Amino acid sequence: MSRFNPPLPNPRCTPHVWKYSDIKPALLQAGRLVSEQQAERRVLMFVNPSRDASYTTDTLYAGLQLVMPNETAKAHRHTAFAMRFIIEGIGGFTAVHGKRIQMTRGDVLLTPSWNGHDHGKDGSGPMIWLDGLYLPNFTHFPVHFVEHYSSPRYPAEDVDTSQSPTVFPWCRTKAALDS
User: Fold this and answer.
1) pTM score
2) Which residues form the Cupin type-2 domain (predicted)?
3) Which of 161, 52, 168 lies closest to 110 in space, CA to CA?
């Protein structure tokens, strides 16, 4: 019985640190070497040294995604919920279920399960964010899948991020933490 109900936590993943300053040059090099047409996504996956892909932790997949100027990460939807933490760049956006959300450094953007979405970048310079999805949970519960949309962009209109239940702007979060 203790195999199924152990007396202590028994994670298979081990603690590990991925330093942004070490990873960013490789991510930008991928942006120069791999075109938008060659890759559905440019993501450097954080693979836990104790596990295979797609494990970052026992329950979370994470990776840094890069979108270069005037690129689109094609529209799709998937069963896994997704979280995006915006690290750097200006002019990036995601369109989720018809709502176009501007990306701002420090923001957390949520993509609920099975909502059509795409990502893009207007202006100059790269857009980089941390993607987090609970993909490892589907290893023993194999119901995760992806459906691509018929065109690269999902139809969307701009959203007021101050009113969105799926956007957590850093400026609002910081104000709450400082109060």
Assistant:
1) 0.85
2) 64-131
3) 168
pLDDT tens, position by position, 39-48: 878 999 999 9
Q: What is the pLDDT of residues 53-73, one digit of tens each?
A: 889 999 999 999 999 999 998
Give the pLDDT confidence of 111-161 residue by residue, as tens digits.
Answer: 999 999 999 999 899 999 999 999 988 877 788 888 999 998 888 998 888
Q: Which of the listed CATH numbers 3.40.50.150, 1.10.760.10, 2.60.120.1440, 2.60.120.10 matches domain 20-178?
A: 2.60.120.10
Query: DSSP alpha helices (H): ranges in the chain?
Result: 20-33, 170-178
User: Residue 169 is encoded by which pair of tokens?
Assistant: 């702007």
Backbone angles phi, psi at 78, to 5 degrees: -150, 165
Q: Is 164 exposed, middle or buried (0-12, 13-18, 19+ CB in 10 A)?
A: middle
Tokens for 77? 């939807």
Amino acid identity for residue 27 in this structure: L
Asked whether the predicted pLDDT for residue 1 surpasses 90, the reply is no
Note the pLDDT of residue 116: 95
Domain boundaries, the chain: 20-178
C-alpha dihedral (8, 13, 19, 22), degrees to nearest 10: 160
Residue type, 15: P
Contacts of 76 (CB under 8 A, 6+ apart): 116, 117, 118, 146, 147, 148, 149
